[in-house]
Design brief:
The complex is a heterodimer of chains A (381) and B (369).
Chain A (H helix, E strand, L loop, with lengths): L8 H15 L13 H14 L17 H13 L8 H13 L2 H13 L4 E4 L15 E5 L2 E12 L6 E7 L11 E7 L5 E6 L8 E12 L3 E2 L5 H7 L1 H7 L4 H16 L6 H29 L9 H22 L9 E3 L2 E3 L1 H8 L9 H12 L3
Parallel strand pairs in A: 1-4
Antiparallel strand pairs in A: 2-3, 3-7, 4-5, 5-8, 6-7, 9-10
Chain B lengths: L5 H17 L2 H9 L7 H9 L17 H14 L6 H15 L4 H7 L5 E4 L3 E2 L2 E2 L6 E2 L3 E10 L6 E8 L2 E8 L5 E7 L5 E11 L1 E4 L3 H38 L1 E2 L2 E2 L4 H30 L3 H30 L10 H13 L4 H18 L1
Parallel strand pairs in B: 1-6
Antiparallel strand pairs in B: 2-3, 4-5, 5-9, 6-7, 7-10, 8-9, 11-12
Helix pairs in contact in B: 1-4, 4-7, 4-8, 5-6, 5-7, 7-8, 7-9, 7-10, 8-9, 9-10, 9-11
The chains are: A alpha+beta (381), B alpha+beta (369).
Amino acid sequence: MTDWNALSDEEFRKEVRAFFEAEYPEELRHLPYRPKFAEIERWHVKLHAKGWVAPAWPTEYGGMGLAAAKLLIFYEEQQRFGVNRGRDMGIQMVGPLIIKFGTQAQKDYWLPRILSCEDIWCQGYSEPGAGSDLANLRTSAVIDGDDFVINGQKIWTTMAHDATHIFMLVRTDPDAPIKQKGISFVLASMDQPGVDVRTITTLAGETEFCEVFFDNARTPRANLVGEINKGWSMAKALLSFERIFIGSPSLAQNALGQLETLARGRGAFDDPVFRDRYTQVALDVEDHAALYSRFADQLKRGETLGADVSMLKIWVTETYQRISELMIEVAGPDGGSIGPLQVGNVGVDVLASFYKARPTTIYGGSNEIQRNILSKAVLGL
Amino acid sequence: MTLVQDEDLRILRDSVGALLDRAGGVRRARRLRDSDEHWDAGIWQELVAAGVLGVAAPEDAGGLGMGLTAAGVVAEEVGRVIAPEPVVPTIGMAIGLMQRLCPQDPMLEAAIAGDVMVAVAWQERCAKGLSDVIECRFDGSTLTGNKDWVVGASGADHVLVIAEGADGPVLVRVSSDASGISKQARSQSDASALWSMSFSGTPAQLLADGAQVSDALANAVADTTVLTAAELVGLSGAALVLTLDYIKTREQFDKPIGSFQVIQHRAVDMYVMQEVAQAAVREALAAMDHADTTLERVRQASRAKARACTAAQKITREAIQLHGAVGYTDEFDVSLLLNRALVLSAWLGDAAFHRRNWLEANETEVAAQ
């Protein structure tokens, strides 16, 4: 087996880039929506055969065993080439949790099924009354013989209508003095009578998000991961790498490229007002990238990232929104048109960018929550 | 250029920072502002002894050869305590021009050693403001014309002047006590002065001519621009620290005002702005140390100044607001920082100017490809 970490960064980047360019289906590049599994299955098969489904997992569990610096390169190349992340909740969230906190039996059973996508996972965290205040969740799991009986409702569950399993935070001790302490992490099958999924249509007209209702649904007690009532701290432990990933410059960089294409095509660069506004966002992107490399260098030196990494997400998502808003303006009377606008021989979909930029300041911990974190953990306020 | 290690930069930062703090930090800037001296000759000599002026200059000219990155470290520290001595104009403009155009002239080593003070007069004013035409003439032995926005004209032993010669721009030297010089100070918001200078048949010595003069000037201006950006980063960092200290201690409604979320989020925005500015300016400094073309150096300098001006203005203005009424007083140091930020932002081009410059440099680069 190749020890990817032994390669230099440049060699590794070349290797990853070459594989994506040779094998990734052209028509799936830069998909503006989240595909169902069937749509990207042929890519998953190639990735699985190559052994590259789980870049971050240790090799003993079938991952690539990449150190942080290499992992960052892998994701940079993935985004640069517009490679879809696929249905990676199992890879990104469940797998690492089972590897860290699961029993041997759980590892043996679940991990191969995640890699092969025999099981496709969705994440059951948010609830109608538990968004930013996630610890306020109320969906309950009560022990009944060898099972948990689950009642309640999850919401904003991404692609739940195309998932076979759900990993969820549930309340197992309603009397815990601190609400974070009565929460457990359990796995459950979606394919049972007590689980009902309804899609939510977004303002972009898409149906990526779902509500999931649990009415006496059951899951074996063996599907509890880690200790009972310890789910909160386990879920939080997973977020460290996620926080730099969510603040990476790629979304804003891609949008800036589209803005430039559109603006050149429409002659907007002749307008001094536009020129200045374009330069503001262009420099917002370029200077964010400088900050991002500072954190990436920290990872390369093997350091753990602190709470200050939250600022990347704040800056890049707000920049992304400004770029997408500027694109709408440049489109002029076409600013409300669905589908790509033809600019020379390329299409620029201004509405898709605009819609895609809106939830970025809400998901992954809203930017207001990120500001709370920075205020407390970094500024000491 | 020698490869500079992070550790060397850290040592440089610590030693320059300690020297300036020992001298009194921002309090010293206030004391000098309220005196007639404006600079402190003793501290200037201490900075010289620490090698500060030659940090980016080549070793064979008596410098340390550590590159702009190291000069940026010095500039950040100078900005942090708003030291009024002309560190950045001397490193960037005076030494920057001499090391490129007349490296053999003994004045270069003398300037690095602090034996002479050298000011640079290169900009001119027209009816609308900044002129893009040089009208100051050098006839082979004397200089005639007007220059504007000169830093440090009062304490200088020599003035380097960019003038129009027989075949394009030239660099000449005049002694500050030469005949036919008159100068007038325009007071700035931080109590410093920018000088207007008139030369009328003033004896001048030719130091350099030919196409190299324009290129050296562009590079020296780019150096000084990015170093001013670094100075602003130091300044806005100081404004942030002052503000955080204040909102943690100032109580209203029986609580520190920093416990209110609206204040917290505004403080976070100042902090994020500061971190982005610092990362961008440091990256620009490093890029300029490795850049192959003048155009790329100019582009990076503009990027840095655009960001640093935006951040320093935003942060010092927010600092006033979060201090409340006392922020509007002269007594609180945040006012000194705001007033200094105004001057440093305006000098060598503000954010809007440099955004324009950056985009034009980008377009020139694309057109050349």
